[in-house]
Design brief:
Elements (H helix, E strand, L loop, with lengths): L10 E2 L7 E6 L10 E7 L3 E2 L8 E8 L1 E6 L2 E6 L3 E4 L5 E5 L5 E8 L4 H4 L4
Antiparallel strand pairs: 1-2, 2-3, 3-10, 4-9, 5-8, 5-10, 6-7, 6-9
C-alpha cells in the first residue's frame, strides 16, 4: 500500500449556474468528512445566495477576482490572495467582474449541502 493518494479524477459537481467545481478530496470523492479541497471557476456575473456554513472555508485566488460579502462588509480578493472565513459567519460569494475567477476552496470539516445553510 502506498503512503499517498494521487487524485487524477476529481468529482465534477453538476451545477446550473455556470460554475465549475472539481472536488479533489471530500465527501463526494473519498468520503472524507474532515476536509474538502475543490478547484473552482466562477464565470463573470456569477453569484450564489448568502450562507452561514458549519465549516471554516479557506479560499486562494489563482486568477481573476472574487467578491465576498461578510457580515455586511465587502471584501475583494485578487490573484495570489487568500482568506479564511470562520464557520458560523454569514457570507455571500460572487464574481461581478468581467473575467472568470479561478480559485481553490478548502473546507474544514468537509463541504456538505446539509451544513452550508444557503438562504432562499
Amino acid at each position: 500500500m502506498k503512503n499517498y493518494i494521487l487524485q487524477e479524477s476529481p468529482f465534477i459537481v453538476p451545477t446550473e449556474d455556470g460554475k465549475y467545481i472539481a472536488e479533489h478530496f471530500g465527501l463526494a470523492t473519498d468520503g472524507n468528512a474532515n476536509i474538502s479541497i475543490a478547484h473552482m471557476k466562477a464565470p463573470p456575473g456569477w453569484s450564489e445566495p448568502f450562507q452561514t456554513p458549519e465549516f471554516d472555508e479557506f479560499t486562494f485566488i489563482i486568477k481573476g477576482q472574487k467578491q465576498f460579502l461578510i457580515d455586511g462588509e465587502k471584501v475583494v480578493l485578487k490573484a495570489g490572495q487568500s482568506i479564511k472565513i470562520h464557520k458560523g459567519t454569514r457570507v455571500q460569494y460572487s464574481n461581478p467582474f468581467e473575467e472568470e475567477c479561478e480559485y481553490l476552496a478548502i473546507c474544514m470539516p468537509a463541504f456538505s449541502m446539509d451544513t452550508v445553510h444557503r438562504e432562499d
